[in-house]
Amino acid sequence: MCGEKKHAGGKLVKVCLKTQRDLVKGVFITGDFFVEPEEKFIELTYLLSVLETPIRNVADEVARILEGEKLLRIYGVTIEDVKEAIHTAVRGI
C-alpha cells in the first residue's frame, strides 16, 4: 500500500509499505525530493527495505531511522511529510 504527501512548495514524497498481516515488512520511499550524499540514501533505502515492525508503529520507526541518519540531508520534504505519507498508506490497508 502506498501513500503520498506533497510538501508546501511542491515536492512530493511517496511511501510504499510491504505488509503481511499486521506487520510491515519493508518501507520504500521515492519522490521528487533531493538527497545528499547519495551513498547515505542508498544505506537508508536498504535499512527501510528490511524494516519489520507492527503497522501501528511504522511511522515512528521510520522517523526514528531518518532522524538517526545525521549525515543525510533531504531537501524538499520533511520527516513529518514522510510520516503523513505513511499514515495515508496505513489508512489504505
Could you explain how this protein is built, in words?
There is one protein chain. The chain has 93 residues and is of the alpha+beta class. It has a single domain, classed as Enolase-like, domain 1 (2-Layer Sandwich), CATH 3.30.390.50. The protein is 39% helix and 33% strand. The chain is built from 3 helices and 6 strands; from the N terminus they run ββββαβαβα. The protein has helices at 38-49, 58-68, 79-91, and strands spanning 2-6, 12-20, 23-31, 34-36, 53-54, 73-75. It has a 4-stranded antiparallel beta sheet. Helix 2 packs antiparallel against helix 3 (79-91). The model has no long low-confidence stretch (mean pLDDT 95).
Keywords:
93 residues, globular, Enolase-like, domain 1, alpha+beta, four-stranded antiparallel β-sheet, 6 strands
